[in-house]
Amino acid sequence: MLEFLLSGDAIMALLTLTFLEIILGIDNIVFISIAANKLPEHQRAKATNIGLILAMVQRIILLFFVSFLIGLKEPFYTVETSWLHIGISGQAIILFLGGLFLIYKSTSEIREKVETPSHDEDQVKGKKIKSLSQAITQILIIDFIFSIDSILTAVGMTNGLHPNHNYALVLMIIAVVISIIIMIVFANPIRKFIDEHPSMQILGLAFLILIGFMLITEAAHLSETSIFDQTVGAIPKGYLYFAIAFSLFVEFLNFKMQKKRLSNK
């Protein structure tokens, strides 16, 4: 286990996944802050921290559930025609539907953020909260909605890293715990940074489209799909890491250019 966690692939997956979990958690932080701000001043920090800790527990439980479904590798139905072969399994279905969900959710979020950026915030603001328990309940409901794409992202980033799926599960749990701790400690600075650089969140959502596509191809590969005798291969994770690293490097250069332009004015 320790040898796997210290391997290059595992460390790269952990860093990338933690980064994406934080980016995906920005909306969560915003909505938690809105819900907490409806409480008296002395209860706001408590509601935020309790909400995020319970959110972490909720995500870990979901990880175990999804990992159990991913473990269903044996095909229960085979589609066999003259030009198509698919061995349908529980694992393939979860990965395929998860990929479709990520692509749909990401494109919808990008469109919503471009056209009506405050739509979701307005909905949360409109809900009444009278007690700490009500605030925490609302925070958990909000987090459950955001947990789905977070969990599917974790599965996409770690699936296939090790033959023993429990190793990947431990890696996913570590990434979730680290990201939640960072969000608890740096919630306000992170939110301010994203407010100043909204392109980072759009970039994170764009990465989810890549991960969604990778989940779909992974589902086809694991179900041994062949179309006209052409099998679907797995996409190496290194391609995804390179795309994310390159995009972040370009975004970093863009930040530097914007800073320099503002300082010269």
Automatic annotation (TrEMBL):
Keywords: Membrane, Transmembrane, Transmembrane helix
Pfam family, one: TerC
Gene Ontology CC terms: membrane
Gene3D superfamilies given in the database record: MFS general substrate transporter like domains
Keyword set includes Transmembrane helix: yes
Stated family: Belongs to the TerC family.
Top-rank taxon: Bacteria
Cellular compartments annotated: Membrane
Transmembrane segments: 12-35, 47-70, 82-104, 135-155, 167-190, 202-223, 238-255
Membrane topology: Multi-pass membrane protein
Signal peptide start-end: none
Main subcellular localisation: membrane
Natural source organism: Xanthomarina gelatinilytica
Designated name of the protein: Putative transport protein
This protein's record includes keyword Transmembrane helix: yes
